Structures are given as structure tokens and as C-alpha cells.
Request: fold
Amino acid sequence: MRYELYYWPGIQGRGEFVRLALEDAGAEYLDMARVPEADGGGVAGMMRLLDGDAIACPPFAPPFLRAGRRLIGQTANILLYLGPRLDLAPRAAAGRLWTHQLQLTIADLVVEVHDTHHPLGPTLYYEQQRAAAKRRTRAFIAERLPKFLGYFERVIARNPAGGTGLAGARLTYADLSLAQVVGGLRYAFPAATAAALASCPRVRDLHAAAFARPRLKRYLASSRRLPFNNDDLFRRYPDLPG
Reply:
């Protein structure tokens, strides 16, 4: 099956968690932001699906995935669907549910990262909330960053299958997502992330191993992989701690 991924152009964002799974599996997919609008792509094509009257069950926001007749929204939900089809989820139902739970926890962490630079909401520019962003970032680095990374470190250490990832004996989409988060944290808060990872060697090794996988290594070196930037989830502002 050829999948169609819809997300905003110019940023990795939440769409990148889906891209990593598709790329690692070697799945055939179209990144619709790069498809000409005349061919149903770009922002215009995406907005027709979001706002059009013809969609009975429209997604709230991108990313969303077209898989045959299905239109699936929400990052964790998309990965729950793709996981078994791309061989990136445990085979047993309990393992799939656990992997989904981990993905939802990663989503919670991503929201907290976003809120370091937009603590008063996305409708205000960063410059309009700089003071609040400094306070939020200090608290995130001191309390939330080590708590989240420490949790994932414990999960890997307690993996009943003895694997080096979060769930089961083989790599899952949750491992890819955690690797993406570590990369984003290193961009946004390099010193603070290095300090936190010093006590989380399993998380650090998971990031390295995931991004060393042959297909992902080629993807990361390609033009398809957009760079981190300050319009994205993970941002680096010189006046913020980290």
C-alpha cells in the first residue's frame, strides 16, 4: 500500500514521528507537503481534507495519514495503526497497548518541550512571552527533563524481553519517537540534555542505535530530512537556559 502523509511544510514537527516509522520500514509513501498543489498536495490539498464537507470523520489537525480509504489523525493513533503493518510493534495485544502507552507519554513530553518557548499559548509570538518562557524553561530543565528521561531509562532497564529498547525484543515505533525527541532536546537544550543523559545511558544508546539503522541513516543524510529550526517544536533561543 502507498500511504499519503499530510503535514505542514518546512518543519519536522509531529509529522516527523510518522516519517521515521515509514522511512525505517522502507514503506512507500508520499509526503503530501512536497506534492504540487495541482496534484492535490501542498497546504491547499491538506486544508481541503481538514475543512472540506466531504469528509465524514475529519481530523482536527495534521499530521494525518491516508491509508486506502482510511483517513487517520493524531500522531500516536497513526503509529498505533502503522506499527503492526510496518513490523514496528510487538505482535501480542498487550505489547501493542504498552507501546501505544509509551507513545502517548512521549507526546506528553513533546507538549512540555513546546511550552518552554510558548508557555502562554501559540497565538502569541515568542517575543511576547519571553519572561514566562525563561521561567518555564528553568522549571522544565530542573524538574521535568530528568523525570521524563529517567522514566524511559527505567523502562528500558526493566524491559521483560531483555531488549535494548522500550518494548519487546525488537525496535518499535516508540523507540524511533524517543530517538527523535532526544535529537530535538539536544538541539534545543544542548548542555542540559547532555547533563540529563549522563545518568540515562540506555536512552542515549537507544538514540544512537536507532539513527544508525541503514534506512534511517540514509534518510537523515537526505534532503527529505528537514533541519531543526525555530518555527518547530524544538527551538533554540540564546536567551533561554539550556
Observations:
- Residues 130-157 form the longest helix (28 residues).
